[in-house]
Design a protein that fits this description.
alpha+beta; single chain; about 775 residues; 25 strands
Length: about 775
């Protein structure tokens, strides 16, 4: 039966299709007399010219690595964030369900395994069918040709290249065909199909079959069933038009076409097709969050990326590093412990609300490794300033988070303390510290033996007690006039250089290498302070803070390791002595103990409050975790303001102090975390290496003289006998010591022990 005139091909379409066939004939080397010459004659084109044009085209297509999403994982391998330019996870063909493979081949190129680069039969069929319907019903391009087009589009770097990849011209078709021939010569069919499935776009941000399977159905590609396979196979023709999240009705129609085609080709039975067509789409859409803002630890994630962006071994330029991180399919193994992170987040949010004109921040660093275990801040990541959100990372140094930091106050006194101990100033050394002192700045020595270039008078005042103090009491009470005079003895250079070696990023000596250094006038971040104090906990071993341990590429090969970078920056005996001094802040009589922030595990720490109470600090540590806690006044624009007179968290603050504001935030986090820390204690300072170590005198009453002498001498004391005294202890045992039990003396100091007469003093019963 002849076709009705209305269904016959218009002459213009016939003419157009003949042009395509000229190229087809020339490229495939079809018999000139049988195909190429007649078509060329119709168009008036010489076959030699067609062949010459084909010879001038590139003969090979380099298939670059496909962009894949990168995962950032915690220390246990749990994903905390994904970042990508294209949401893709490459899978091998054997990781794709056989049903999916059959569906995509059936609808896109059913003779894929039978023909070469071009399916001439399929192309002719598509031309005739599409022309008859005046629309695109069947695709004429083979899967290999489609892969070429997708590859050229994916690898296009400029707008011109992208336009050329999709131009509706015969020149593009010729180029694609030549590349397709090259691919067929270079790779087998399975490789081409695998690459195609990983390259294809399946709509709604899903690139590649694995990402599509996870996104639409929350399954892996190898688990795709018939319904799911038919839906995804139908998407590749027009991912926008058939996007099931926007056009479920169109998607269903297209799915049914795929099922009918599979049944027509006997890939499935007609019964299977009809039964599946009765089903709904059964979507289980799973959004893939891109970027740190969706992370469980957004500011840690941001810190990781900024840290890696500064690593030139990952690329010569920032653009190269960014491309690798967002498209390399990497697994970035980090140091974060999500238990610690959750505890830090919980404490920060309880003490400082996001709407407050203040920033609450915690940073946690593991001693002797430098591993950053958590960073948390009160302002969530986001652009809505009025809702308390911010993209500024206030916890890390400026190069990683864009915040300039805040002055650290008296937490800097530890650098002068450590220097004094190292220089041989006894811990028992006393300094008269009145409420205010007047010191000539020119008396402070700076580096190279020079004095500070100013003779102005510096007149620091105490905000706490005044009197005569040693290094223990002067530190525990944070006496300003004590430390001003102690710094005058140590000089400025050594404390300054020590702070730098411990991780404090001091870069402006004109502003920082000044007499007020000990009062913490330099701007620092909580992470810097946690890193520095971790050096004390690590017995003088400083390790650079690091959030990453290794990067693994898409093939599970280790791309780079980030090992601990550590240096012994002070003798362990000096660090032990500092720990012995600072643990007093969390013991009876110390600021921390009074604020009820002490932990069950042994801990040490130091408070800090800066001028006008614009920021308060508590930096504390156990032997295996250092945590810096900071609350700083800051308006919505991040400008420093006073904390006084503000409501911070649930409470009105009339006057802010480190022990009562930042300390409890530290304590609440550490009290939850310490259950996961190994039970360790600080090493007592060695009196042989450190002068003036203060040691508590034990109760030796009732012991033999020899045993009591041995115990006291083991603690570094000299022992003398003071004669007999009445006591209720047995005759010739120790009655008591002078000074008595609980008193503190420096190593080398003398303890007198008295022996018992065996009789209580008259009028008293002998209490033991």
């Amino acid at each position: 039966m002849s076709r009705p005139r209305s269904e016959r091909l218009p002459f213009a379409k016939v003419f157009s299709h003949l042009g395509v066939m000229v190229a087809v004939s020339a490229v495939l080397g079809v018999v000139v007399a049988g195909l190429a010459i007649p078509f060329a004659a119709v168009l008036g084109v010489a076959t030699d010219n067609v062949a010459d044009s084909m010879d001038q085209l590139p003969q090979d297509l380099e298939a670059d690595a496909l962009p894949q999403k990168t995962r950032i994982v915690d220390a246990k391998g749990e994903t905390i964030a994904t970042i990508f330019d294209e949401n893709r996870v490459n899978v091998s063909l054997d990781q794709v369900s056989r049903t999916m493979v059959e569906a995509i081949v059936a609808i896109e190129d059913y003779r894929f395994y039978e023909h070469g680069a071009l399916d001439l039969k399929g192309t002719l069929r598509a031309l005739l069918t599409n022309s008859a319907s005046s629309s695109t019903v069947q695709g004429g391009s083979s899967i290999t040709q489609q892969l070429v087009k997708l590859t050229l589009l994916s690898q296009a770097d400029t707008p011109e290249e992208k336009k050329a990849a999709v131009d509706r011209t015969y020149a593009r078709k010729l180029r694609e065909l030549r590349y397709a021939i090259a691919l067929e010569q270079r790779y087998n069919k399975d490789w081409i199909l695998e690459r195609y499935l990983n390259t294809a776009y399946f709509g709604d941000g899903a690139h590649g079959i694995q990402a599509a399977a996870r996104h639409y159905f929350n399954v892996n590609a190898r688990k795709l069933n018939l319904n799911q396979s038919a839906i995804l196979a139908g998407l590749v023709q027009n991912p926008t038009k058939f996007d099931p999240t926007n056009s479920p009705d169109r998607t269903k129609v297209r799915r049914d076409i795929v099922l009918d085609r599979m049944a027509q080709l006997n890939v499935i039975t007609r019964k299977q097709a009809e039964k599946t067509k009765e089903r709904g789409l059964a979507l289980k859409v799973r959004k893939t969050r891109n970027g740190c803002v969706y992370s469980r630890a957004p500011f840690f994630c941001d810190y990781v990326l900024n840290y890696l962006m500064r690593d030139r071994s990952l690329g010569k330029t920032a653009e190269e590093r960014d491309r690798l991180l967002k498209s390399g399919g990497l697994t970035i193994r980090t140091t974060i412990d999500l238990r610690f992170q959750d505890a830090a987040d919980k404490s920060v949010r309880a003490h400082v609300y996001k709407e407050n004109n203040a920033i609450g921040a915690l940073a946690m660093v593991q001693p002797r490794t430098g591993e950053v275990k958590a960073i948390a801040q009160s302002r969530p990541m986001g652009r809505r300033k009025n809702a308390g959100e911010s993209y500024l990372n206030y916890v890390v140094p400026s190069q990683y988070g864009d915040s300039n930091g805040f002055q650290a106050g008296s937490t800097f006194k530890v650098f002068v303390l450590a220097t004094a101990i190292k220089q041989g100033i006894p811990l028992s050394e006393t300094i008269s510290s009145p409420p205010q002192v007047f010191l000539n700045q020119g008396d402070f020595e700076v580096c190279d033996g020079q004095n500070y270039p100013s003779s102005q008078i510096w007149d620091p005042e105490n905000s706490t007690d005044s009197g005569t103090f040693n290094l223990y009491t002067g530190t525990r009470l944070s006496v300003n006039t004590f430390f001003a005079q102690l710094e005058q003895r140590t000089g400025l250079c050594e404390p300054y250089e020590l702070a730098k070696s411990m991780g404090i990023q001091l870069t402006d000596p004109d502003r920082e290498l000044v007499p007020t250094f000990t009062l913490g006038v330099a701007d620092v971040s909580p992470l810097e302070m946690a890193e520095a104090y971790a050096t004390f906990a690590g017995r003088g071993l400083h390790c650079d803070a690091r959030p990453v341990t290794a990067i693994v590429d898409a093939n599970q090969n280790v791309l780079k390791k980030y090992p601990a970078r550590c240096t012994q920056v002070m003798p362990s005996s000096v660090a032990d002595a500092v720990n012995d001094v600072l643990r007093g802040l969390l013991e009876p009589g110390g600021f921390g103990y009074g604020a009820n922030i002490q932990t069950v595990q042994p801990a040490a720490g130091k408070t800090g409050t800066i001028q006008e109470n614009r920021a308060v600090w508590f930096v504390g540590y156990t032997p295996n975790l250092a945590t810096a806690s900071m609350i700083a006044g800051a308006n919505k624009e991040g400008q420093p303001i006073t904390l006084n007179g503000q409501t911070i968290g649930p409470s009105y603050v009339s006057a802010a102090f480190g022990s009562t504001l930042a300390g409890p935030m530290w304590g609440d986090a550490m009290k939850e975390i310490e259950q996961w820390l190994d039970d360790e204690d600080f090493v007592p300072p060695n009196s042989t290496d450190v002068l003036g170590v203060l040691t508590g005198i034990p109760d030796v009453g009732g012991m033999s003289v020899d045993d009591a002498t041995r115990e006291l001498e083991d603690l570094g004391f000299s022992v003398t006998l003071g004669g007999r005294r009445p006591s209720g202890y047995p005759r010739d045992t120790v009655a008591y010591s002078e000074p008595g039990a609980g008193a503190e003396l420096a190593s080398g100091d003398t303890v007198v022990i008295y022996t018992s007469t065996g009789k209580p003093p008259k009028g008293r019963r002998g209490d033991r």
